[in-house]
Design brief:
Blueprint lengths: L15 H9 L15 H10 L5 H4 L4 E4 L21 H16 L3 E4 L5 H8 L2 H10 L1 H25 L3 E5 L12 H22 L4 E6 L7 H7 L3 E4 L7 H8 L4 E6 L1 H6 L3 H15 L5 E5 L9 H14 L10
Parallel strand pairs: 1-2, 3-4, 4-5, 5-6, 6-7
Helix pairs in contact: 5-6, 5-7, 6-7, 7-8, 12-13
Length: 327
């Protein structure tokens, strides 16, 4: 097992930390661990219905996202080589929240920070970021390396602060392919991603390295498995064959997400959505290695009834060993 073993009796009730670490070690816990990513409008709506109670506690979410508050992040100036890092005060505040979450038996994760490619696009533009690899490869590598060095320093601080999950990644997938060929990925990004992962693991060997990638990921997964990614998010069913991902890579990497927004939560009826989520859990959960969740942030167009249905589907169908059946 990759992470420190947590001993448990199968079928016995587990706390969220035991549940998560069993899953990440590709063992079957008592039930599928889960977390949804919701826009604030939906969070407020759920909490209002619960008369101010925390919807995450009510619906049994296992992971808590904890941000590091440092306004300097908004003042990054790529061309001036200004890459700020959070203050000791900001990190200490996050550490206190992390400790509180762990004391409650929950799992801590940083709020998502865009990755190397995403920052390169943000500092320039999409076309420039892709074109520059071909037109000015040496210059592109310098730009990309500077961003990677900054993110390495940032995530080293995050790992030392005590996050259970260090959450980064890059949007390299489109709806049916990757945005760049694997030869370009290997030349410009792969070693920088590995350097980022190494900085996390050196600072905290027990940190789970989670990488985000919207869209199609069949091609990129072998690359990420090779460099040591522990868990991949978002696993969009609209852009991937979930059965293929699970059968081909399910023993090598953990999956987080897979409950589709486009194909399920936006467009399906309540009855259709329930069945789609049952099928998703049935596909992804056997043998562990699965954290159920929305395949990206859910926006305010989704009715609260569908959010609640998602939680109910996970509760109904995510129980080991009788996955996919209602108890």
């Amino acid at each position: 097992m990759r992470f420190a073993p947590r001993f448990f009796v199968r079928g016995a009730f587990m706390d969220s930390r035991e549940r998560f670490y069993a899953a990440i070690n590709h063992r079957e816990p008592d039930r599928v661990p889960h977390i949804a990513l919701l826009y604030q409008q939906l969070v407020d709506g759920l909490n209002a219905e619960l008369e101010g109670a925390d919807y995450r506690d009510h619906y049994g979410e296992d992971i808590r996202l904890i941000g590091v508050d440092y306004p300097e992040y908004q003042t990054i100036k790529f061309k001036d080589n200004i890459f700020p890092l959070p203050s000791k005060k900001a990190l200490e505040k996050a550490r206190c929240e992390i400790d509180s979450v762990k004391e409650r038996g929950l799992v801590s994760c940083n709020t998502y920070i865009p990755g190397i490619f995403e920052h390169f696009k943000a500092f320039t533009d999409d076309e420039f970021a892709l074109y520059h690899m071909m037109a000015e490869p040496k210059e592109a590598k310098v730009f990309i390396g500077r961003i990677a060095d900054w993110l390495c320093r940032l995530f080293e601080l995050y790992a030392k602060t005590g996050y259970d999950i260090c959450f980064n990644g890059d949007d390299i997938g489109t709806q049916n392919s990757t945005i760049m060929g694997m030869h370009s990925y290997r030349e410009f990004y792969k070693q920088n991603h590995k350097k980022l992962l190494d900085s996390i693991k050196s600072a905290n060997p027990e940190a789970v390295a989670a990488f985000h990638c919207c869209g199609h990921m069949h091609t990129i997964l072998p690359e990420w498995i090779e460099i040591g990614v522990d868990m991949v998010h978002s696993v969009q069913p609209e852009a991937n064959d979930l059965k293929y991902l699970k059968s081909e890579f399910g023993d090598k990497i953990a999956f987080w997400g897979a409950l589709g927004l486009q194909s399920e939560m936006y467009y399906l009826s309540i009855g259709q959505m329930d069945e789609a989520m049952r099928e998703c859990i049935n596909t992804m959960a056997p043998g562990g290695g699965f954290v159920a969740g929305t395949s990206n942030y859910v926006t305010g167009e989704v009715p609260l009834e569908k959010i609640k249905l998602m939680y109910e589907a996970i509760k109904k169908y995510g129980i080991y060993p009788s996955l996919g059946t209602t108890r």
